UniProtKB/TrEMBL annotation:
This is Zinc-type alcohol dehydrogenase-like protein. InterPro entries: ADH-like_C, ADH-like_N, ADH_Zn_typ-1, ER, GroES-like_sf, NAD(P)-bd_dom_sf, Quin_OxRdtase/zeta-crystal_CS, Zinc-ADH_QOR/CCCR. The keyword DNA-binding does not apply. Residues 13-337 form the Enoyl reductase (ER) domain. Homotetramer. It is found in: Cytoplasm. Keywords: Acetylation, Cytoplasm, Metal-binding, NADP, Oxidoreductase, RNA-binding, Zinc. SUPFAM superfamilies: GroES-like (SSF50129), NAD(P)-binding Rossmann-fold domains (SSF51735). It comes from Ktedonobacter robiniae. The keyword Zinc applies.
């Protein structure tokens, strides 16, 4: 089967950073599905994995990246009970296993959802990782209720609202009845954030509190940090309401003063959507349920895909181009590759 992977961890402008491969087609066991991959999305985790790998290490067999896919079930393992061959699926995957940048891919069915019927494969591949991250952060880590009536008058601040996760979190938070304040600094990112449901935007390059006060929201019960925890920490501490909650998907580069939250009895939580599959948690199947719920919301017109760029085919040259685009740091929405070469 065709695949794209790496032997060494190299800068993306090196043609050997990602290379085309021919690998054996895997066989599903246990609860695994064998999926014929139709489209893959590129995320910051791909970039971080490639850039932060050991400089002198040579991977043998080559390492396959990619943690967002949509495709068709080709075969199922003997313990599979949720899917059958021919089912169209989408999923984010498991950081401890080979990624989905391959023509055929093994994935545990408990973290797979039925693809939204109203979307093509590329549109669907833009959604799994960001949807799982946003859903888990809002409803599990921050403890937001899904009942709009209970959220009336409450606000959430989403830092980097125009990014992949921010674009989904905005839609979910708005659907849950929260007033959504998103950070964005460029005209195009401000416009994107508003199109996806933010009620207000503020500039993340400036202190939050004065901008929030000008909006009539001097303190916020929920903050979701999707970018540069170090830069925003003090501003979040100032803005969070007493007994409020902050969730981040990015780790700090330097120590942050967690004790600064003590006076407000504020909660700080991490969100990593790979936690459930990585540790095979007892509730791992929740990701299957979340993806099926998101698919139903998409098909009902309540959530829309965040796909903004397509590349074809899925090969090393295009994946290097996609990685380079994300490394520039100004990506809005999601970049998806579709169709392996014949």
């Amino acid at each position: 089967m065709k695949a794209v992977g790496l032997y060494r961890y190299l800068p993306i402008d090196d043609p050997e950073s990602l290379v085309d491969l021919e690998l054996p087609r895997p066989t599903p066991e246990g609860r695994d599905l064998l999926v014929r991959v139709k489209a893959v999305s590129v995320n910051p985790v791909d970039i971080k994995t490639r850039k932060r790998g050991p400089k002198d290490k040579v991977e043998e067999p080559p390492r396959i990246l990619g943690w967002d896919a949509a495709g068709v079930v080709e075969a199922v393992g003997p313990e599979s009970a949720l899917f059958k061959p021919g089912d169209e699926v989408y999923y984010a995957g498991d950081i401890t296993r080979p990624g989905c940048d391959s023509e055929f891919h093994l994935i545990d069915e408990r973290i797979v959802g039925h693809k939204p019927k109203s979307l093509d494969f590329a549109e669907a591949a833009a959604l799994p990782l960001t949807s799982l991250t946003a859903w888990e952060a809002l409803f599990s880590r921050l403890g937001v209720t899904e009942q709009p009536a209970e959220n009336q008058g409450k606000s959430i601040l989403i830092i980097n609202a125009a990014g992949g996760v921010g674009s989904i979190a905005t839609q979910l938070a708005r659907r849950a009845g929260l007033t959504v304040i998103g950070t964005a600094s460029r005209p195009e990112s401000i416009q994107w954030a508003k199109e996806h449901g933010t009620d207000y935007t503020i500039d993340h390059h400036q202190p939050f509190a004065p901008q929030l006060k000008a909006l009539g929201n001097p303190t916020i019960p929920y903050i979701f940090c999707l970018n540069n925890l170090d830069q925003h920490w003090d501003h979040m501490v100032e803005a969070i309401v007493p007994q409020g909650k902050i969730c981040s998907i990015v780790s700090p580069q330097n120590p942050v003063n967690l004790g600064a939250l003590m006076g407000k009895s504020a909660t700080f939580a991490w969100e990593l959507m790979f936690t459930r599959p990585r540790f095979q948690t007892a509730d791992m199947i929740e990701q299957h349920h979340i993806l099926d719920i998101v698919a139903s919301l998409v098909d009902a017109g309540e959530i829309k895909t965040t796909l903004t760029q397509r590349l074809s085919p899925i090969n090393a040259a295009n994946l290097r181009k996609a990685h380079a685009t994300l490394e520039q740091g100004s990506m809005i929405g999601k970049l998806v590759l579709e169709k392996f070469p014949e």
